[in-house]
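P.,

For your records, the input lines for the assembly:
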Amino acid sequence: MNKALRNPLVFTLFIIPGLILFLMFFIYPIFSSIYYSFTSWNGVSDTVKYTGLTNFKKAFGDERFWISVKNNGWFILFSICIQVPLIVFFSLLIANVKKLKGLYKTAVFMPSIMSTAVIGILWGFIYEPNIGLFNKLLGLVGIEPIYWLSDERFAMLSILITNAWQWTGFYIVMVLAAILSIPGELDEAAAIDGATGFQRATRITLPLIVPIISVVIMLSIAGAMKAADIVIVMTKGGPAGSTEVMATYMIKYAITNFKYGYGNSIAVLIFMFTLVVTALYQLLVARRTERIEY
Amino acid sequence: MKKSLTMLLSLIFVTSALLTGCGSNNNTANNAEGDATATNGANATNAVATEEPVSTEPFEMTIRHTQVGADKQKRLAILEDVVGKVQAEVPGLTFKLDGVDSDVNRKEKLRGEMAAGNPPEIFDLFGSPDSKIYAKESKLLDLTPILEELGIKDKFSNLDPFTYEGKIYGLPIGGSGEGFFYNKEYYASKGWQAPTTFAELEKQLAEIKADGKVPLAGASKAGWVPLMLANHLWSRYAGPDVTVKFATGEAKWSDPDVIKGFAKYKEWIDKGYFKKGELGFEYAEYTTQFTSGEAILMYDGTWKSSVFKAGQSGEGLIGKVGFFNIPAVDGGVGDQTALMRDVNNGYGFSASAEKDPRQLAAVKSFIKNMFNEEMQLRGLVEDGVLPAMKIDQAVLTANITDDLMSEIVGVLNNSKSSFPAFDSLVQADVTTEISNIQIQKLIGGQTTPEKMGAALQKIQEEANAAVE
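Structure tokens returned:
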């Protein structure tokens, strides 16, 4: 059997079904999208008109598209600068608790299994200007109500906080698994040598989980680039387009307006931007990370 | 030997996997063909034996409707009754009801099906611009000969949103008009009546504000909600026909009279007449502000009257809600009684039905049973949807037992003309700009009426040039 599997023909036969599925559901849609991105197809017509780079020129010349790109950038920055440190911090805390570790893990994981629509409603109550939790707390210290979702200055931040709340638990469980897989002897030896808890966390645990943190950052970047549902549920891209991201821009300015050609060009741009950002991260950061062997 | 056996097994596995993956459609098609052959054969035999002209072989058609959720149960019941009647009239027909959220159907599902060429045979259709785009691509059944045959072509109040190049491609299920719903109990406590002049309306708004209440419900997360009132205001100042002229270039968004409409809306925002923080509220909260008594007035479509019925969220306000049109404004252009009215929601039929006589018969029967006086009155009485067909005033009056609906019909009768909402008159790009950006900027204080007009005109000119 082993010999047979080494036979290139058998090997090829086995990968054909998977290859067909890959071609059908991944490669074909990508190339189809690229093809339509150079057309003015309205999504209904049987005929498509080639328009060259018109769609891309239109996108690059549209101020609103750049606002949406900038907002995707905020998603990435918030993930890397705020969310990831919190993920690591809470992972270290949970890894070191002696009791109810399972309860903590379940509690932090819970938001990531909830539907975005439910989260939108839940946080809509928290941000509610009159009876919402945040404004009630601010009211206790004499601060005037903030219109979290309707004020341009706070709307994007409100979405970023909600999005981070939704996904932090998922990444905590990943990082936690990495921490718990570190051999206990390393920690014990450091403790015997007199290292404090903080020193063990920063000098032993943290360096050993750098690869998984790198993966978390990669996933966060990819997630940030395709963010859409949370924006639609919470602000619909408003007020006045201030929280628009590339995916919601694509839906609002192209798909709902029967401009599928333009929509496909935005989809291609999202794909390209994501590819560039993740490739840059891989080249500049992730590849430099040493492989960890215990 | 082992190697050959492995090779053979591998080949069988891969081949069977491929055939399984690719074979289902063919099998269905083959089965369908087989059935069809068998059916044809049977029909041929029957034809010879009994000379029966109409096949009674079972066949299925799909109706895509949007009557989902508790609020639309009455409308669904009407559809189900029609389905029953059509199935009884067309031998062998079974309807499959496919209920989908209205927005999902309009903006995603139906568009995808149209692109793929497999829309349901009967489906919920938005008039303008959707039906015209589908009609242009020959995706819709031309209903003109069917309506002529049934003798109902001239029975509809307005078929413009469903008409393309002189042919009718869809039928409106009902109509709507927009105006102010007001809390009669509050008005009575102040000794007020529905305002008859614009000055009186503004005086009432100011006094409601001074009374610590919210004068006007506000929920502008979706731009179309505040635009209902804004649209009516600019049409009062610049004329009911101004919006239709934007697309032809005969009028501009930056015209002084149009700006007056924006400015009046802005003035009401600045005076705090709308619920504060409205840009963060959904449409559902709009109704709640009114039904809870927080807001005294709510500018909305007549469809909202169904909320003030037993078992609905506004049950507590039954008999306590009135309706009035925006009074005439000083220096307003054109008919100052004009009401914003739409007949944009209805049914369309797949062009494929034309090729199948039995499907065509089912479509005819559906139209006959759905678009008649009885069903239109049921829609009005049970669901608060205004008739899309012309109905004798005496019949209409005799059927309305609801005070609010009587008041609504009174307002409709007192308006000498009507105009459709802007989104059925201007290009999609302009609709997107005003709905998603400009009206929210105006509410948020990030633009002025003049800048708003100029920004809209720029998009309008680009859209007009693209058409040319």
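Two observations worth noting. Residues 168 and 427 of chain B are 21 Å apart (CA to CA). Chain B has two domains: 57-175+343-391, 178-341+407-466.

Regards
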